[in-house]
Amino acid sequence: MSLFEYFENAEGTGILATADSDGMVDIALYARPEVVDESTIALVMRERLSYQNLKSNPNAAYMFIEKGPGYTGKRLYLTMIRAETNQSLVESFIIKQPEISPAGDDSNKYLVFFRVENIWPLVGREK
């Protein structure tokens, strides 16, 4: 199954882990990523700790825990490629997933693109 098909169909919870240049780690809840192609994803991010960390350390990990019994999901190991500041483009992604930005949220948002370095299941290291 392709990454696009997986995230189009899977329901669950996403978590993004980042670290600053000193190695101080942060984790945060995130919506499902937008799959650009099989090696690139994008996330809408606010100007908060995760985004600040990526500016000094481009490495991140995204964990998706599928809804349901057991421990099923994926872990994506990522490298930030770039951040898009064009608010029209950012808003076009928010429209697809309204839970990203609650009504009345006027904080700065970015569309952050990542190269997918590795994909592992939620448990174990087999692909």
Proportion in helices:
10-25%
The CATH topology name reads: Pnp Oxidase, Chain A
> What is the level-2 CATH architecture name?
Roll
CATH homolog superfamily: Electron Transport, Fmn-binding Protein, Chain A
Q: What is the number of domains?
A: 1
Describe the structure.
20% of the residues lie in helices and 46% in strands. The protein has a 7-stranded antiparallel beta sheet. The protein has one domain (3-121): Pnp Oxidase, Chain A, CATH 2.30.110. The chain contains 3 helices and 7 strands, in the order αββββαββαβ. The chain is an alpha+beta fold and 127 residues long.
Features:
127 residues; alpha+beta; Pnp Oxidase, Chain A; 7-stranded antiparallel β-sheet; 3 helices; 7 strands; 20% helix; globular
Quick synopsis:
The chain is of the alpha+beta class and 127 residues long. Helix content is 20%, strand content 46%.
